[in-house]
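call fold(seq) -> C-alpha cells
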Amino acid sequence: MDASDLIPFRVDSGITEMLQDMDEEDLRGFAEIYAELTDDTNVELYIYSCVKIFEKSNTLKYLDLAIERTDTWITVGCGDDREQTRRKKIFQLLTLRKSNITSTQREGLLGDQVIDVTTESPPQNRIPLIDNDEYYNESILLGKIYEKTKDIGKMAVAVEAAEYSLMGIPPGDPRLAPYKSNLGNRLCQKYEARGNIEDLNRAITLTNESLDATPLDDPMWQSRLNNLITWYKNRFSKTGDIKDFERAIELAGRALASPNSTKEDQLVISSTLSSLFQKRYEKFQFPKDLLKAVKYAKTALDGTPSDSPKRSLRLHNFKLRLPLNESAYQRTESWENMDELSALIEVAEIAVASDVISDAEKIYPMRRLAENLLSRFLQCGSIGDIDRAVDLGERVIIAAKVDTSSFLEYLDVLSIYLHFRFQRTQNMEDVKWGIDIMETAVMATENLSMR
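ret:
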C-alpha cells in the first residue's frame, strides 16, 4: 500500500496494478499521453499518474502538477455535489501532503526541481468534509500491521493517515487528544525505523499536547503519560540532553503518584525508570545511577507473577543491570567517594542475595563485592567489611571448579583478605587458615600441571 491509496481516486484496479509495476521512465511517458486529455476519467488518470511518479522519484514537480491539475478540475466542475466533494478532498489531501514535506526532505528532492513548498491554506470553499474517524482508524490498523510485519510502506501510510485524521478538527474537539496521541505513536514508529530526530521531536510535542488535553480520570491518561516518558527516554538516549532525562523522571514521578495507576502501570513505570537510570549510568558512570537502575528493575521483577508473559523480559532486564561479568563495570578504578563505593557494594549485594541468579552467576558479583568491601575496610576500618569479604572469598572458592586456573586465583585472593584481617585482629586462626590455603594451592597446581 502506498500513501496514494488513502486518496479517494477512482482508477481501474487493472491500471493501478500496471502503473505500480512501471519504472519511473515509463510512468513519465504514460503521464505525457494523458496530459492534454480533458474528459474526467483521463484527467483523473493523469493526476493519479503524477502522484505515482512523485512517490517513486521524489520529484516535487509532479506533486505540483497533480495539485495544479486537480485545482483546474474542481474549477471546471461537473454538476454533481458528491463528485465535487470528492475532487476537493483529493485537492486537500495532496496539498496537505506537500505542506508536510520537511526542510530535510526538501533537500533530498531532485536537482533543480526543488522549489519552495510553503503552501497557503486552500480556499475555504474548497475544504471538503474529511472523514477524520476513518483515517484515524485506518492509521491505527496500519500501525498494528507495521508492528507485526515491519513493512515500511505500511508505516509511511499509517503516518499519513494520522496526519489526515487531524485535518479540520477545531480547537476543543475531544478527538484532538486521541488523534494527536495516535500521530505521535506513528511518528515514533517512523523514528525507530528511520532514525530521523525530527519525527521524535514532533512526537514529543504532539504527545505533550495530547496529555494536556486528557483529563486525569480518563483511562488513557496513564497510557499517554507512559508513552511520553518513553519518547523522552529515547531522545535522551539519542542526544544525551540531560533536560530530557529530567523531564522523563518528573513525568515518571507523576505516573507513580497517580491514584488511577494500576499495579501493572506501576511495574511498567519501574521498568522505564530502570532503563532511564541505566542509560545515564552508561553515559556518566555514576554508581548511584546503576543502583537505582537495579532497584527499579528488581521492583518490576518482584511484582510480576511467575506465569506472566512479561516475567522473562523483566528477569532479563534485571540480570542485565547486575555485575555478572567483566563487561558490567566499565569503570573499575577504586572509588574514594564513600557514597559511590557504597552504591557499588549495594548493587553487588542485591546480585548475591537474589534467588533468580545461579550460584555460578554469583561468582563474579561476589568477587566484586568482596573487593569493594576490602576497599571500604582500608578506608574506614570497619571489621564487619573485612569479615564479609573473607566470607565471600570462601563462598567463591566453594562455587568455583577446582581444576581451573581461576580456582588458584580465588585461593590467592582469600589469602589476601585473611592477611588484612590478621593485621587488624592478630587472630592466629587466620594464619593457620592461610597456611591451609597455600597447601591447597600447591596441590591444585600439581593437578593442573599433570593434565
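Confidence is low (pLDDT under 50) at residues 110-129, 330-334.
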